[in-house]
Structures are given as structure tokens and as C-alpha cells.
Amino acid sequence: MTGEIIKVGMADLNVIKHPGTLTTLGLGSCVGITLYDPVTKVSGLAHIMLPSSKAIRNNSNTAKFADTGIVQLLEDVIKIGASKSRLVSKIAGGAQMFSFSNKNDIMKIGERNVAATKEILDGLRIPIIAEDTGGNFGRTIELYSDTGILLIKTIGHGTKQI
């Protein structure tokens, strides 16, 4: 790994050209979405919090929502040299961090975030080539621009690469 490490905050996104690493901390119910072009080694990472901007009045932060954040991420990676036809995605997060006594789906934010992410990427014809989603534990992820490897760190569940 060479280059700088760029932190992506909650409801945030960023893109880089090799060399460099994108990282985001504390993915609970949030989903980390990566886009990677293996030829140009352009990488992008979004840390989305909610599935849709449509039901929220204050939705000016596009990176907060799957529906607007993924589109913004796609535009940003293309601007710095990625080709849409070569892009692949990896996703992580979408955990159910708290248990609820009722079976109300509105509380299943992680599950809804993952479903929205998959639907949007499918609609954009960007294949998801790997994922580490669900469960009841948080994740920290690092995307390496040289290889496109996504390193996933968890407390109590170890570290793995996808």
C-alpha cells in the first residue's frame, strides 16, 4: 500500500486515483459502497446512512442516501478517469445493531440500506462482485486503489479481504 489514506466520514463520499486508500469507520446500519475501475485504478467510497432521500425534507447532503449518494459517487469517479463499463462494486455494512420487540420493518435500517444499494447499483448496471453485509456488528473498511481489495475489520469477528 502506497499513497495517502483518505478518511470518508458518515454521510460522506470521496474518490481517488492510485496511489491511495479510502477508509471509513463505524459502519453499523450504514453501508459502505465502493466503486473501482481495475484499469485506471480509480476508486470511490460512499458511506450512506439511509436508503432514500425522497421521504426526507432536509436532503441536501446527497452522500447521506443510497439513491443520491451512489449516483454522485458514479459521477465523481468518471470525472477523474473511471470508465462506467469497467466499474465493479463491493459493499459492506447494513448491520442490525439493535433488537426491537416489534417486527416493524421501518426499524430495519441496515437491511433497507443494503436492499436500496443493490437495487440502485443493479439499475446502473454496476456489478457487485463481493459483499459483507448484515449481522449485528459494526465494520471499518479500507479500499486499496492498487488492487481494489476491500479490507473489512470487525470487533469480535476478525479481519477479512473481499
TrEMBL record:
Keyword Hydrolase: yes
Keyword annotations of the record: Chemotaxis, Hydrolase
Coiled-coil annotated residue ranges, if any: none
GO biological process: chemotaxis
Keyword Hydrolase: yes
Gene Ontology MF terms: protein-glutamine glutaminase activity
EC numbers, comma separated: 3.5.1.44
Function field: Probably deamidates glutamine residues to glutamate on methyl-accepting chemotaxis receptors (MCPs), playing an important role in chemotaxis.
Protein name, as recorded: Probable chemoreceptor glutamine deamidase CheD
Organism: Anaerosolibacter carboniphilus
Lineage of source species: Bacteria, Bacillati, Bacillota, Clostridia, Peptostreptococcales
